[in-house]
Design brief:
single chain, 6-stranded mixed β-sheet, alpha+beta
């Protein structure tokens, strides 16, 4: 059996040597092409969400094409940011989040390289957190990503999802996904030791990726002269890229939207640095990798979900900014959440447990024990004359734009200029503090004889479904 044993040993040594070479290439150059996607259930889950949501996202984004550059000049946001934010609110309960990422950019120097269109990212990490800790990648892939055993002790998935790029888009702005914002980097990258990586692959696992990478371009996101001239273009269905290397998505042709699936990772030793580089809110949406994981990675019961920590103070601010209050007075006109939809109602009574009895508009029914979080003020409408708080004082203004995130654009009466982003909580009716009272009040006897209902009428539910 000696020849057979020697053959197996040689094969193992060759495989190990190949893995070491690929790992060295990834950690030194900053990227590595793979012939095929490794067998990892995490990749399958991304494709599962892609199949379920991609077409719906495409229709919504196309429908809002005329608004892709909304507020870009006024607030210096990325193209597509307003639309992405509104779509995210729509899918929040499903754990899906859409963002506008680094935009497409013209190479026309005479026009100072203008941004020419949006690129979007659909994140499913909140949904994936409902599955609990993730299974580990296969041994070969783990060895390439984390050659040092310390890096494999407790790695993290920091993002899951896919990019969406419109047809006829220019190449993306060059960038690094992770960089230090401090003047002096407190956790500089060590040569040949990557900490943050992301897999990129095409959903069909056949079409080639076209990402451009600056080999060895670890400049903390600083784009230097000549970088665009030394881009290496990926030509493989799957690639692993170091998130600290400078790179950019390729241009797209006229044949429709393109998409690339991604899984972003952080090594065990990279976690401390990531906490310094990333916003605290983003670090709440990560998923640990469990090397002791067994069984399929499926959605668990809600008590077993990985849930981000919620700051009660921030939640209160969020509630107030979107039309909520800490206390409602009897008779106030409001909107009340019923099964995910909002209906007009009026406050009938405040209970000792701080819940409310609300009377539904247009019908002689009411609902008890409605919590504060399910009650909000009616939205302001375009053209409504209001007063807006600015630096502690109230000024007359007119609503000129209404956004789905509960912010408004207002035009000041004094000089006709605009404030582009004012929260609902900073606006009140003009001249009439009691203008939100009911025009007629029910007598106690009428309230006591009115029929009780746990929900709006069947007619209301049908009308809402049609809308």
């Amino acid at each position: 059996f000696e020849p057979h044993t020697s053959s197996m040993e040689r094969h193992a040594q060759q495989a190990l040597s190949k893995t070491c070479a690929r790992s060295k290439s990834l950690h030194g150059d900053g990227w590595l092409e793979l012939g095929q996607l490794p067998c990892w259930e995490v990749f399958d889950v991304v494709e599962e969400y892609y199949a379920k949501y991609h077409d719906r996202m495409l229709k919504l984004l196309e429908r809002e094409r005329g608004r892709w550059f909304e507020d870009v000049e006024e607030t210096n946001c990325r193209p597509g940011a307003v639309v992405a934010k509104e779509i995210s609110r729509r899918f929040e309960s499903e754990g899906i989040f859409v963002s506008a990422v680094h935009a497409s950019q013209s190479d026309d120097a005479s026009r100072d390289y203008p941004l020419t269109g949006p690129r979007f990212y659909v994140s499913v990490i909140p949904a994936a957190m409902r599955r609990g800790p993730a299974p580990p990648p296969p041994v070969d892939a783990a060895s390439i990503l984390w050659p040092d055993a310390k890096d494999r002790e407790k790695p993290w998935i920091t993002e899951l999802g896919w990019t969406m790029v419109p047809p006829n888009s220019d190449a993306q702005q060059m960038h690094a996904d992770i960089l230090a914002w401090q003047d002096e980097n407190p956790f500089p990258r060590k040569f040949g030791q990557g900490r943050f990586h992301h897999f990129i692959w095409k959903p069909d696992r056949i079409t080639k990726c076209t990402t451009g990478v600056v080999t060895g371009g670890f400049t903390n996101g600083c784009i230097q002269d000549g970088m665009h001239n030394c881009l290496d273009r990926v030509a493989s269905p799957t690639v692993v890229i170091d998130s600290e290397v400078c790179h950019c998505g390729g241009p797209t042709g006229p044949d429709g939207w393109t998409a690339s699936c991604t899984v972003q990772l952080c090594s065990s030793t990279g976690w401390e640095a990531l906490q310094s580089f990333a916003a605290e809110t983003l670090l709440e949406y990560v998923c640990p990798i469990d090397f002791g994981f067994t069984g399929p990675w499926v959605e668990l019961s809600s008590e077993c979900w990985i849930k981000p920590w919620v700051d009660p103070v921030e939640e209160e601010k969020k509630h107030l900014s979107k039309g909520g209050k800490l206390r409602w007075r009897v008779g106030a006109k409001v909107e009340v959440d019923f099964e995910g939809n909002w209906f007009p109602a009026a406050i009938g009574e405040r209970k000792l447990d701080k819940t409310y009895c609300v009377h539904w508009d247009g019908e002689d029914t009411y609902t008890d024990a409605v919590p504060l979080v399910k009650i909000r003020a009616p939205r302001w409408h375009i053209g409504r004359q209001v007063e807006v708080e600015w630096r502690g004082k109230w000024h007359p203004a007119t609503i000129s734009k209404v956004r789905n995130d509960w912010s408004y654009q207002v035009r000041w009466d004094a000089d006709g200029t605009c404030a582009y982003s004012v929260w609902h909580s900073s606006i009140r009716p003009r001249n009439s503090p009691a203008s939100d009272k009911l025009s007629t009040k029910r007598s106690p006897s009428e309230v006591s004889t009115a029929s009780s209902s746990n929900s709006p009428s069947h007619r209301k539910r049908i009308c809402n479904m049609q809308l």
